[in-house]
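Per reviewer request, we include the raw input and output of the structure prediction for the construct analysed in the revised manuscript.
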Amino acid sequence: MTKFIDEIVSKAKQGYKTIVLPEGEDDRVVEAAKEITEEKIAKVILLGDEKVIKSKFDIKGWSVEGIDIINPETSDRLNEYAEIFYELRKEKGVSKEDALKMAQDVNYFGTLMMKAGHADGMVSGAAHSTADTVRPALQIIKSARKDMGVSSFFFMNKDDNTMIFADCAIAVNPNEQELANIAMQAAQTAVQFGIKPDIAMLSYSTYGSGKGDMVEKVQKATKIAKEMALSDEFKDLGIDLDGELQGDAALVDNVAVLKAPGSTVAGHAKVLIFPDLNAGNIAYKLVQRLGGYEAFGPVLQGLKAPINDLSRGCSAKDIVFTVALTAVQAM
């Protein structure tokens, strides 16, 4: 494991939160649950058929001691959770029968566990789409602030360098206010994980070198974000934010001197805010595949409680780390 992963796992152990894994019948999740429990990273709850899950442990010769296994369809809390969901969604036309059916879905059940205070976080996506994971999060947990919404980020790590890329998975084409909100959420994330909140608002232009609506959006977002950074909510985070900056100006010192002289962020930004999902998603994959960086995410930010998505191609090790990361967010 890299130093960065070691630090996240160590921090998670200190908090020892309860994390629910809805895909308890998946072999990778079973392996991850074993390691998480043995290493005391978090308390694990697996959802699924008890017989199926226990047989997978038995085949491997592993113990299920310390791991809770719950079948949503037969849980004695099913009606309680269905009632919670009904009360949350009845104005949207959800009936009690609908609520009972939805509560039996593993992702909804896991999210409702969190809403009821029976779990601190959830990790899903090994066998489900991002939408399957995110939809119940938005319907049940909801955003910490209604006016800021929910966004996502990736940790990009190589050797001792860890950066945050946002948003690379959720916000398709954020407007200037939404872009500023993403920057503030990313700043909070950076501080939470010990990364300096030096934030670059990225564009194909630096300080007006390019023109067009897309440039103006980032310029306006930068102005809004700078004002937000000085507000009572964010002023203690130590945010240093600048834009609009091109990628090279944000990351390379000698380019920054030429393109953005006097900037306190240019040349050494640790948090990159992309103008839209096209740019963010393409960038993180290029950095991962060509630059040799490890990409961890997408991680959701802005929810009242942490729920995170896995890639369907994830490994057991990926799940272990995501659970550790989620546990840190829950602290």
